[in-house]
Amino acid sequence: MRFHHFAVEVKDLEASTAFYQKYLGLNVEERLQFNKETIAFLVKDDFRIELISGGHEAVSQGVHICLQVDNVQEIIGSFTENGISALEGPYKLNNGWETVFFEGPDNEVIEFLQIREKAEFQI
Q1: Residue-range definition of the domain harbouring residue 74
Q2: pLDDT at 121
Q3: Same domain, residue pair 68 and 108
Q4: CA separation for the pair 109, 5 (Å, rounded)
Q5: Together in a domain, 2 and 20
Q6: Does 37 share its domain with 85?
Q7: What is the Cα–Cα distance from 97 to 122, expressed in whole angstroms?
Q8: Which residue, among 53, 50, 55, has the nearest Cα to 38 in the 3D structure?
Q9: pTM exceeding 0.70
Q10: For the chain, what is the domain count?
């Protein structure tokens, strides 16, 4: 068994697709219709996310996506340059990991995690 994708319910498929393309570097792999939902699969390397839009006014988000990155500070810089502040963090954990949380266009929480033991950033 291996991981295939993570799914996020979104209000505006185009806005969410643009967000994940711009900030996470994902590319559209496939678009399809299933029942009353429009679905887009976005992919980068071995990571895949499924964006699902059923035209609902409200979406419920009780989960977060965690992406392992090489440099948390580069991620923070990319979001900050575009006027997006961290939702939480950055934090340096006792094991040396560093993490920061941002919010996507439908209130989904995206965690970026740097797991190098000697991470280089200052709070």
Answers
A1: 61-118
A2: 52
A3: yes
A4: 16
A5: yes
A6: no
A7: 13
A8: 53
A9: no
A10: 2
Instruction: Tell me, yes or no, whether 2 and 53 share the same domain.
Output: yes
- Identify residue 5 by its one-letter amino acid code: H
Query: Which tokens hold the place of 41?
Result: 């699969």
What would the two tokens of residue 106 be? 């439908």
Q: What pLDDT was estimated at residue 119?
A: 47
Q: What is the pLDDT of residues 45-76, one digit of tens each?
A: 988 998 988 866 666 665 678 888 999 999 99
Q: Where are the beta strands (DSSP E) in 1-123?
A: 6-9, 27-34, 37-44, 47-53, 64-68, 88-92, 98-103, 109-114
- Interacting residues of 10 by C-beta distance below 8 A, sequence separation 6+: 16, 51, 52, 53, 59, 105, 106, 108
Confidence at residue 37, expressed as pLDDT on a 0 to 100 scale: 84
